[in-house]
Structure formats: structure tokens, C-alpha cells
Amino acid sequence: MFFGKRFSGHHGDPFSGLDILVLSIIKNYDGISGYDIIPVINEKFKDLWRASPGTIYPLLNRLNRNSFVSVEDVNDSKNRKKKLYRITKSGKERLKEVLRDNFELSINTLGDFIRTIVQTWVPDEERINKAMLCFPFDCAAHHPKMDKTDYSLPNIERLKRIIKELEFSKLKLSGRLNEIDRRIENHKTLLTELKMKREKNMKIIEIVDDEEYENF
After folding, report:
1. CB of 154 within 8 A of CB of 160?
2. Segments of the chain with pLDDT less than 50
3. What Cα–Cα distance (Å) separates residue 1 from each residue in 16, 146, 162, 170?
4. How many Å apart are CA 102 and CA 99, to the nearest integer?
5. For 46, left (φ over 0), alpha (ψ -120 to 50), or beta?
6. CA-closest candidate to residue 97, choices 23, 33, 168
7. With respect to CATH, is domain 2-140 assigned 2.60.120.260?
8. In 3-state terms, what secondary structure has residue 33?
9. Nearest-CA neighbor of 100 among 166, 15, 157, 185?
10. Domain boundaries in the chain?
11. Using one digit for the tens of pLDDT, what is the confidence trace for 101-129?
12. C-beta separation of 22 from 37 below 8 A
């Protein structure tokens, strides 16, 4: 599975796919809690894989020990204690390095790989489409459920950030749809050209009746 694949860089220990995913989420959601990271992952990967506290919290502790993230202990609006995670300068540099050196090549074939695997055990096209939502050509952002009663400044800033991310995702998705339209037209043009060539180069076979066949 992609999450278990190791991605190395010039410096430091290799990252797993899950390391990269979690660190990227923290980068995009500054001040997110471990509790909120889990639904972000689960919403993105639907029924394919489920993140759990037993997986995510040890990973967060490891990222913190390696100084890739910082941790802030706070009380929420209901006076419950929680930890907020933020990516550090070292974390940004490490993430950028790993993505640059390894991730681009791997992600190019990841969509086809998952589609092939999923088709072997889930013939339902709807389920396959859910799997394909995980990858770069679907850039829709998935966010934790917002607390409609929390009017704190951090929550307001988070809403502003989410709006910007959704606008960016819309722009990227529009670009992808335009690219798909272009490819469809190119394929239609090629199909027309090939059909014309086939008709032009087809040999006409004369059909003879029985009498002509006897005198052949």
C-alpha cells in the first residue's frame, strides 16, 4: 500500500506515504489537532483505508521528536484540553525535499495502480470513483466539521483559510476539466482521421454469384 512506501531524501530518515500526508495536512491546516487530522484523512480516502488514533498519534509524536512539527497545548471553547500541531521550518524543508526527490515520480502512476487494485476486489464503479478522488486530479479540499458555535479568532481564521483553499481547488479542478476536454477533442480528431484512412485504404472485394463462380 502507498502509505507503507518509503520516500527518501538527501537528509534524514525516509518518510512513509502516511508521514507525507499527515505533514502536508498540518502544513495546510495550521494549528490543527490530531483529533481533526483523522476525519480529514478518512473523508479523503472514503472506504479504502481508515485512520485511527493508534496510527496517527504515534506518528505525530515521531514528527514532533524530529522537530518537523511543533505542539501547543490549549483549551478549546468547551475547556477541553487538546494539542495543536504546526509545521516547523525544518518540517517544511523536509517535506519539500521528499516531494521533490521522490513523490512526483510515484504519484504519476499511483492513480492507475489504485484503479487496477480496486477493480480486482470492488467491481462497483462508484467505489472505484471514490478511490480516484484521492489523487491530484481531484483537488477538492476536505475539512473537519466546523464548530458553528465557536466564534473565536482562530476558528474565524480557519474559515478564511478553508475558503481560500476551496477557491484554489476550484481553480485547479477547472484547469483539469479543460485539459480533459482538450484531450477528448484530440482523440475525436484522431478517431476521424483513422476512420478516413481506413476507408481510403480498404480494398474492395467483389462478390460473385454462383453462375459467375462456375465460369471463374
Report:
1. no
2. 1-11, 104-105, 109, 117-118, 120-123, 135-142
3. 10, 31, 29, 29
4. 6
5. left
6. 23
7. no
8. strand
9. 15
10. 2-140, 146-200
11. 655 445 554 555 555 544 544 445 555 55
12. yes
